[in-house]
Design goal:
332 residues; alpha+beta; Alpha-Beta Plaits; four-stranded mixed beta sheet; 35% helix
Length: 332
Amino acid sequence: MKGFGIIELEAMLMLKRQGVTLDRDIIFLGTPDEEVGGDFGAKWFSEKHPELLKDAEFLINEGSHIITGSDGKPKFWGVNFSEKNVLWLKLTSTGQAGHASMPIKDSATNRLARALEKLVAVYPMTVRSPQVVPDLKKISETKPEPLKGYYSQVVEDMKDNDYIAGIENDRMLSSMLVNTASLTVLKAGYKTNVIPGEASAEIDCRLLPGVEKDEFIAVVQKIIADPTIKLSVLEWNVAGASDIQTDLMNSIKKVAAEESPGTPVRPVVVPWFTDSHWFRKLNITCYGFEPFEVKPELLASMHGIDERIPVSVYSTGLRRFYKILHDVAAAK
């Protein structure tokens, strides 16, 4: 994310230093807080100062990249035009507090633990996304067996147990095809020998386009089957989708043909979220695309303590991004 931000800034500076005449204005917008929803970043900016982006046609953000196969060669340039919707939930249980030497069967912690055990044991709702399925055959070409077969196998009913068992082993594929719920935060107690009167858990849910918040919450409530546990919404963002027939997409395709002849450009839906959804609400076409190859080992480092991109990848990405920016914005 930060590496690509610097690529964007440096490409803009290169255009300025080279005195390139522009047909389109270029704005560099840096915002904080994307990882926590953007309340004090993109959300604040888009709501408080939309006039600064008046008439903006396109926004280029993080979100996707050039997909490589198991051989390390590029398979397609993936351009994120839509994302899963974000729903963060908090489950809160209350009950009698007391000394831990005398257990309480229905304590707040015990009831919450029982509810969470049910939730994490259930594979997420198997709802297929019509926006994702057409990409599976192409994605399958990037995977080794047996994952290649699971990707290319598009079944009419994803309740097929063998199919579900197959895709569960690939985090990316399973996250693209179903609604997900990840247990991320647990809070309870302050002392080992005290049974707390309150316990809570936070769940990060990512919903497929078209799935409503209340629909998913009803499923969660049915799974935990405990009306005493309070369920509250911490965050709900609808990502939306952008048009893929644009001048910017044409520029990306042109540069792809120059840099990687024969490699197609594919619009993709990603399982994570970015700040793009705030700007789609301003009717700006938003693409998430970082024009460099991300090998599986680098993708696996995302959000890890060693998240990184090599200098060679950065340099290649800068060259390609400059060419895209020049093609879409420079005077013809």
